Amino acid sequence: MYGLSHDKLPRHLAVIMDGNGRWAQERMLKRIIGHQKGVETVRVIVEECSRLGIKYLTLFAFSAENWLRPKTEVKALMSLLKKYIRVETARMIDSNIRFNVIGARQELPPDVNQAVQEAIDRTARNTGMVLTLALSYGARQEILMAAERIAADLSSGRLSSGDIDEKTFSSYLFTSGMPDPDFLIRTSGEMRISNFLLWQLAYTELYFTEVNWPEFTAKELHRALHDYQSRERRFGRTSAQLQNRS
């Protein structure tokens, strides 16, 4: 599809899955129906990314700010999340996908946290794609947490000021051990980052589509990836410098 070059796929793809509620409202449906439909899209995109050979897929599933939504919607989302994780764990095992979560997990309901931990444990030995859900996640909160931990280690003597560089700082983030995203997709036409992976997205290619998440198909994914492969990633260098390095 779209003549994708497998050697030019992003190693790490991040997605802001937006538009579930909008999709439902356009059809005069309850918002939770949109979220349920969005879960079906998650399954399709996870399977396609795994099939293509993408190594890391990170999905923004529930933000730190989403706790401010109506309690009935939050409760329904947590129930849907628990169901998804439990149903999909066997599928992840069969597909050699390793499950991971970033965010303030302590804020999740105990039963959801239990389902998360079980999925992490059961897929820990898988060697294929790493599927990460960002749950109760906020990038500013993550950066503040990292700064607090660094300050504590400086105070205790476990770390010296000369040790602090970008690599060290990154090791204090939720995403420690993961490469920064090469490509970010956001659906539903919104053109902002919304407090997602602010540190990690410094050199990430961004892609915005009008398509709502419930209608984001494997075909739409291929279209986005084709756009990514048409770009030149310079990381501050000139095109001539890149050509001389190749």
TrEMBL record:
UniProt xrefs under InterPro entries: UPP_synth-like, UPP_synth-like_CS, UPP_synth-like_sf
Gene Ontology biological process terms from the UniProt entry: polyprenol biosynthetic process
Family: Belongs to the UPP synthase family.
Annotated EC: 2.5.1.-
Keyword hit for Endoplasmic reticulum: no
Essential cofactor(s): Mg(2+)
Active site: D18, N66
Molecular function via GO: ditrans,polycis-undecaprenyl-diphosphate synthase [(2E,6E)-farnesyl-diphosphate specific] activity; magnesium ion binding
Cofactor remark from the record: Binds 2 magnesium ions per subunit.
Protein name, per record: Isoprenyl transferase
Highest taxon in the source lineage: Bacteria
Pfam annotation, one family: Prenyltransf
UniProt subunit comment: Homodimer.
Cross-referenced PROSITE patterns: UPP_SYNTHASE
Residue numbers binding Mg(2+): D18, E205
CC per GO annotation: cytosol
Function description: Catalyzes the condensation of isopentenyl diphosphate (IPP) with allylic pyrophosphates generating different type of terpenoids.
UniProt-listed Gene3D superfamilies: Decaprenyl diphosphate synthase-like
Species, as recorded: Geobacter hydrogenophilus
Matching CDD domains: Cis_IPPS (cd00475)
Annotated keywords: Magnesium, Metal-binding, Transferase
Sites where the protein binds substrate: 19-23, 31, 35, 63-65, 67, 69, 186, 192-194
